[in-house]
Design goal:
InterPro entries: NRAMP_fam. It is found in: Late endosome membrane; Lysosome membrane. GO terms for molecular function: cadmium ion transmembrane transporter activity; iron ion transmembrane transporter activity; manganese ion transmembrane transporter activity. It is a multi-pass membrane protein. Keywords: Ion transport, Iron, Iron transport, Lysosome, Membrane, Signal, Transmembrane, Transmembrane helix, Transport. By secondary structure, the chain is mainly alpha-helical. It has 2 domains: 1-30; 38-76. It has 3 helices and no strands. The chain has helices at residues 2-26, 30-37, 40-72. The longest helix has 33 residues, at 40-72.
């Protein structure tokens, strides 16, 4: 599973770099570019997918924190 972590970190860095370049060239952030270039229906699909990804990421952090606190407090 370590390779998944390394791959996702690399892809995240790549996405951040591409978004930064887009912002420098156009003067707009990624959401503004999507609003301009995508029709209404695909924008809503993108919005739902992003919201699901954010919820999944937040759940992962909360569950990981709960497991870490449980392990550190030695409760069974």
């Amino acid at each position: 599973l370590l390779w998944v972590l390394l791959l996702s970190t690399f892809l995240g860095l790549l996405l951040q770099r591409l978004a930064a370049r887009l912002g420098v060239v156009t003067g707009l952030h990624l959401a503004e570019v999507c609003h301009i270039y995508y029709p209404k229906h695909p924008r809503r699909i993108l919005w739902v997918m992003i919201e699901i990804a954010i919820i999944g990421s937040d759940m992962q952090e909360v569950i990981g924190t709960a497991i870490a606190i449980n392990l550190l407090s030695n409760q069974r």
